[in-house]
Specification:
By secondary structure, the chain is α+β, with helices and mostly antiparallel strands. It contains two helices and four strands, in the order E-H-E-E-E-H. 51% of the residues lie in helices and 31% in strands. A four-stranded mixed sheet has the order 1-2-3-4, covered by helices on one side. It is elongated, with a radius of gyration of 21 Å. The chain starts with a strand and ends with a helix.
Length: 118
Amino acid sequence: MEIRTTARHFELTQELKDFVDKEINRLERYYDHIINSHLILEEEGYRKNAELNLKVYGTILTSQHSSNDFRTSIEGALEKMESQLKKYKSKLKERKFRERKRGKESTDLSSGTEEEEL
């Protein structure tokens, strides 16, 4: 997974970058097929904003969080992203299950009509 970090209106420290890399890599526990991630850290006066965009197959997931501290903002955005990834993964599993079920029904129906014709 490619991880990009953008700092707006402040200088990104190596310590914060290492923290970001470690935390974003944790997201692969929830979904393996993350293509890339982009974390935007922005300082607006006393507010510290974190916006996380993940590109997964077929869609882009986005989460945001604001607080008085960058670490808290990053952790908040990651918590929101974890729940989005869990929901996305369950939707994919449900879709695959429905497709399998639908495929099985169509083969059952087609084999049933052939027997009736004979």
